[in-house]
Amino acid sequence: MAELFRFEISKIFRKKLVLFSVLGVLAFSGMMIISWGVNAYPIQGTDVMKHYTRKEAQKMNRDFLRQYQGKLTDEKVKAIIDSCRRKAENDEPRTYTELMIQKIFLDDNDQIRKVSEVFPEIGNQLVLGDVMGWDFFNYAFTSNVLIIGIGLIILLSPLFSDEYTTGMDGMILTSKYGKNKCAIAKVGAGFMTAIILTFVIILMYVLSFLILFGTAGDDAHMQLGMRGMYQQVPVLTTCLQAVIQTMTASVFSLLILAGMVMLISALCKSSFTTIILSAAVYFIPMFFTGKENMNLMRIIELFPIRMPRIFIFDKMLGGLEICSFQIPLTVCMGIMAIVTFVGVFFLGKRIFAKHQVIS
Asked: Which residues pair with 1 in a beta bridge?
């Protein structure tokens, strides 16, 4: 069985298209890290947009934060916005923290709102800190998951369907282990490929983050991030918690996607058809919101392409309502992963053994 497993993994990575896809995913991940973590940062002035290196922008922000970090108060918000306005008038560079506070707390009439107005449930507990790097990590990694998903679709689409295309299915299915162990080895190799690729990207991001930004600000709250991903979350979430949640949800998302692609591959007679159908299943939910129905909105958030932010929406939307019960979306995600994992092993093997093929 171990030999079959190794053989199936080697078959996945033997194809040139697969190798190009893996290199493409790694290259895109590297560019995202360079773009958001290494390249110049725009620091706004009145008439011009000045640019500073990440190191310079980070130092400016940390120097500014020394007098304001800690529990966020109305007085600190006013002082930071006053500083931001003064620097704008003098065309001086404004830090990430100044721009972030201004963006969050200024209303449409340019009036400063109270912390309790913007964050009614958690305002008196918010901690201001060095959110800049964590905000970058969360945004860049969430965006990167989309590309990893595309890579997995290309990697796993030929798993079963190529056997039909080449006519090898007949030889495999008439062999001693063809209907059982070979199919199980294929599914196992598919999941292992997804895990390896996902964790290689996670390792790239984590190491880059630690080198570029360190761990400062891990106890600050992500609700105060510039990109606003957590501003509507009514539960205190530290930067460290937010990043862990994003990575966890992304791993579940990609494993569920891998299972879906393998099932479609077992059903389709060509890898091209598998890629088209898998891409459709993956991307279509991105264009729906379900705003007309709260429960439909929750269901849409359970699709793999939307799942990396499921911890955010779980706190904002509440659980999935089934027969007067509310099941947290994160629990639904875990159930989906288990069902997908078990289902692919049993259904994938059964479909391949019976060779039920659709065009």
From this structure: none
The pTM (predicted TM-score) of the whole model is: 0.84
Q: Choose the weakest-confidence range: 132-146, 173-187, 267-281.
A: 173-187
The encoded tokens of residue 16 equal: 């040139």
Q: How far apart are CA 97 and CA 83, in angstroms?
A: 11
Residue 112's DSSP bridge partners are: 106
Distance of CA 260 to the CA centre of its chain: 18
Question: 3-class secondary structure for the chain?
Answer: CHHHHHHHHHHHHHCHHHHHHHHHHHHHHHHHHHHHHCCCEEEECCCCEEEECHHHHHHHHHHHHCCCCEECCHHHHHHHHHHHHHHHHCCCCCCHHHHHHHHHHECCCCCECCHHHHCCCCHHHCEECCCHHHHHHHHHHHHHHHHHHHHHHHHHCHHHHHHHHHCHHHHHHCCCCHHHHHHHHHHHHHHHHHHHHHHHHHHHHHHHHHHHCCCCCCCCEHHHCCCCCCCCCCCCCEHHHHHHHHHHHHHHHHHHHHHHHHHHHHHECCHHHHHHHHHHHHHHHHHCCCCCCHHHHHHHCCCCCCHHHHHHHHHHHCCEEECCEEECHHHHHHHHHHHHHHHHHHHHHHHHHHCCCEC
* Six-digit token string for 203: 């390792």
Each residue of 165-178: pLDDT tens digit? Answer: 665 555 555 555 55
Using the predicted structure, report yes or no on whether residue 45 has a pLDDT greater than 50.
Answer: no
Calculate the dihedral angle through the C-alpha atoms of 330, 336, 338, 342, rounding to the nearest 10 degrees.
180
CA angle 35, 232, 93 (to 5 degrees): 45
Question: Per residue in 307-353, pLDDT tens?
Answer: 888 888 888 877 788 877 888 888 989 999 999 888 887 786 667 65
CA pair distance 219, 214, nearest whole angstrom: 13
- Positive or negative: CA dihedral 329, 332, 334, 337: negative
Dihedral, CA atoms, 119, 307, 37, 241, nearest 10 degrees? 50
pLDDT for residue 295: 79
What value does the mean pLDDT of the chain take?
81
